[in-house]
Specification:
This protein is α+β, with helices and mostly antiparallel strands and about 600 residues long. It is about 45% helix and about 10% strand. The longest helix is centred in the middle third of the chain and has 16 residues. The radius of gyration is 29 Å and the shape is globular.
């Protein structure tokens, strides 16, 4: 043993709680560093192999943890020695929470177990012993345990079990701990600093100054901010602060975003109070473009989005929606769109003009089955969705929640929701990443005499242990169903010129695929631009020899993108001009490469993106 190893062996290890306090003292302003702290590095347990491999199988590890915890020891040292003797290692910490949750604890042992838990979190030197204490306090903790747990939650490896324990004891403290781990960008740090320090006077100005862009505030972060700042109380304390009111509305919009997990909104405590405050005081807001877009986004969600799924008192959601409709109908709000002069503001102002009354329309028939095409705020790059509502409830966030509903072009233009004589499985939504990553939602549609049946719901969730929500078979009157499909397919009031141009180009290529195939190309994705919604984007794949029926290396196509700017003429004229150009000129001469194998791209003589 080296001299250093001897010194290390003789030096008692530092308790993780003390280590966290020291790191806090060394941090600027005494607040957590970005993304929290890392646990100190540990030496291997006696039974760990020389290669670092785990000597225990998963079942053996679970049995060893159970044996170490049963019966609960009287002191932390005994538990530590049991873990070491049984070969339980720090990475087995994830097993402790569920096992502690199932431990039998007779009433006469409650106080002894609580005392042990407090000693474990204050004196424990390993993730194992501290995690055991955290898990016990999730069952037995009291308000006095919140400060110590909060400090331990600053370790990234302990943040989740600590937040789970704090959720039971103090939801606001749990949100602060989670937010400290999520606050990766510098823009969030001032607010996190104020929240961690408990500086109530500083929280409000920092919250108002916070950028509301999705780049900085996701749905999850928005929920944590609302809970950590005790947003309902802030709004009650400052009823005429329009900056705070606007920021609260923006947080609601972010939580309700269809691209995020619906739980961001549905799990937010006291969120109905925030809706009440924002909507009831909306008339106080100045009629800016940002405020108009925020209120319209709230209305769209309350009409057909995740907000519908909240546990509303009878009639309350309808009353809020009606109130928003009255506010946005006031002449002063029309000024918000009319005064937008900057090029980057015009798409948003156009969106408000064409969308402004859509969430306030009442369906002519009871909404047993309804389709609402919703175009989201272009400033936030929100998607265009064909939202399906059954009995007034939006299907996709209720049953899936990993991504928005598919576009109207996918579900309506291509007739996927039409009920034919043969059953057909339809994908209603796909995860924002891909189905292979996070799944998709399917339903089978069939016609049964004078009814249309939706049945055999299926949610693909690769590698997920979450049970899929069950949905019953739904039957609709066929004539009503067909009328609603026809209405939704014919309704283009949600669209804009570039989006219509893209739709017409796509329809033209479906009708005449030779326009691309003659150039050894096949159709790819066609829609309005993601970065610039006032453009139509046509993508295609190029494989030499495709037109002759002898494609060369079809597994390695070159991906091209053609951007068609909106020139202000009618969509029909722009689409006709684009299709004529495709007929007359090889699109590879004016489109740009955006993907494929770089080697193959350069082999065929095209410049790789960025090298042109």
């Amino acid at each position: 043993m080296s001299a250093q190893e001897e010194r290390d062996a003789l030096t008692p290890p530092t308790a993780l709680y003390d280590h966290a306090l020291r790191l806090l003292r060394e941090s600027p302003d005494g607040v957590p560093t970005r993304r929290g702290f890392s646990l100190p590095r540990k030496t291997a347990t006696p039974r760990q192999s020389a290669t670092g491999d785990d000597p225990l199988s998963p079942d053996e590890a679970k049995s060893a943890v159970r044996e170490a915890l049963s019966p609960l020891p009287d002191d932390p040292a005994t538990l530590h020695h049991r873990f070491g003797r049984l070969g339980v290692q720090d990475h087995h910490s994830r097993l402790i929470g569920p096992l502690v949750a199932g431990l039998p604890l007779p009433p006469e042992q409650t106080e002894v177990a609580r005392t042990l838990a407090r000693r474990l979190i204050r004196t424990g030197t390993t993730a194992l012993t501290v995690t055991a204490g955290i898990a016990l306090l999730r069952r037995l903790g009291e308000p006095e345990d919140v400060p110590c747990l909060s400090v331990l939650g600053l370790f990234r490896e302990l943040a989740r079990p600590v937040a789970d324990a704090l959720d039971v004891l103090d939801r606001q403290a749990a949100a602060v701990v989670r937010l400290a781990g999520y606050a990766h960008c510098a823009e969030l740090r001032p607010l996190v600093r104020a929240l961690w320090a408990g500086d109530r006077q500083a929280v409000r100005p920092e919250l108002v100054a916070l950028p509301a862009s999705p780049r900085f505030v996701s749905g999850t972060v928005a929920r944590l901010i609302a809970e950590a700042s005790r947003l309902p109380g802030l709004l009650d304390d400052h009823p005429r602060d329009t900056g705070l009111l606007a920021r609260a509305g923006a947080l609601l919009v972010r939580m309700a975003c269809s691209c995020d997990d619906p739980a961001c909104l549905l799990a937010c405590r006291d969120v109905l109070r925030v809706y009440d405050s924002v909507v009831s005081r909306a008339a106080l807001l100045p009629p800016t473009l940002d405020n108009a877009a925020m209120l319209l986004s709230l209305a769209l969600d309350l009409s057909s989005g995740t907000g519908v799924l909240l546990d509303w008192p009878p009639g309350r959601r309808a009353a809020l929606l009606e109130s928003l409709g009255r506010v946005l109908a006031e002449p002063r709000w029309a000024v918000a769109g009319a005064t937008a002069s900057e090029a980057d503001q015009r798409p948003r102002a156009d969106w408000i003009r064409r969308t402004g009354r859509r969430p306030f329309r009442h369906p002519a028939r009871p909404d047993r089955f309804r389709i609402e095409v919703v175009s989201g705020d272009p400033a936030d790059r929100e998607p265009v969705e064909a939202r399906v509502l059954i009995d007034g409830r939006p299907v996709v966030p209720a049953l899936f929640g990993r991504g928005p509903a598919h576009s109207p072009e996918y579900l309506l233009d291509e007739g996927r929701l039409r009920a034919g004589p043969e059953p057909r499985e339809v994908q209603l939504a796909e995860a924002r990443c891909t189905e292979g990553c996070c799944g998709a939602l399917y339903v089978t549609i069939r016609r049964d005499a004078d009814q249309v049946v939706w049945e055999n719901w299926r949610r693909t969730m690769p590698d997920s242990r979450e049970p899929a929500p069950e949905s019953p078979t739904h039957r609709f009157d066929a004539s009503d169903y067909d009328a609603e499909i026809a209405r939704a397919e014919a309704d283009r009031s949600w669209s804009w010129r570039a989006r219509s141009v893209a739709r017409l180009i796509k329809a033209g290529l479906i009708e005449n695929p030779d326009l691309l195939s003659r150039w050894d190309a096949s159709q790819g994705w066609i829609s309005s631009g993601f970065d610039d919604p006032d453009t139509a984007v046509v993508t295609f794949w190029y494989v030499p020899g495709l037109a002759s029926g002898s494609p060369e290396r079809p597994d390695s196509p070159v991906h091209f993108r053609w951007v068609v700017p909106d020139d202000g003429t009618p969509p029909e004229a722009q689409a006709a001009a684009a299709l004529h150009r495709l007929a007359e000129e090889d699109p590879k001469s004016y489109a740009t490469v955006f993907g494929g194998s770089r080697e193959r791209v350069e082999e065929l003589g095209f410049p790789w993106p960025g090298n042109a």
